[in-house]
Amino acid sequence: MSRTALASTIAIAAVIAVTGEAFAHAQLKSAVPPVGGSVTASPSVIDLTFSENLNFKFSGIKVTGPDKKAVKMGEGMLMDSDTTLMVPVTGTLADGSYKVDWHALSADGHKTHGSYNFTVKSK
Ligand SMILES: [Cu+2]
Predict the structure, then answer these.
(1) Taking the model in full, what pTM does it have?
(2) What's the gap in Å between 105 CA and the centre of ligand 1?
């Protein structure tokens, strides 16, 4: 192996080592209502799908409405081999922008958190 080839092999291995660690945590892959998207009716549930299995006890969401008040949510549950967190929406969401703050503990013991917005626009 030439010196250049060896150097690039080491560089690639280093990148894999760094990103491999990051990918091992539970990252939000998709959501319903969609991240940054809008829905035409009040959703009955909020579904967050992660890249890893979650520990239910230490994972959850908080939803804040356009009035800056916390939205009342029901008891959540894990689905799809524990990668999807489904939380029922107790009431009807009025039109406006909602913020979802999520936190997750993946099965490997790593914590992650994040937030995103979606909009309810029925008219
Ligand atoms: Cu991890």
Answers:
(1) 0.80
(2) 9
Position of tokens 């029925």? 122
Give all domains of the chain, ordered by start, each with its CATH number.
3-120 (2.60.40.1220)
Give 55 Cα–ligand 1 centroid separation in angstroms.
Answer: 12
Cβ partners under 8 Å of residue 99, min gap 6: 63, 64, 115, 116, 117
pLDDT, tens digit (0-9, with 9 covering 90-100), for 47-76: 999 999 999 999 999 999 999 999 999 999
Contact 47, 84 (CB under 8 A): yes
Dist. CA 57 → ligand 1 center (Å): 17
The letter for the amino acid at 83 is T
Residues with CB under 5 A from ligand 1 (ion): 24-25, 108, 110
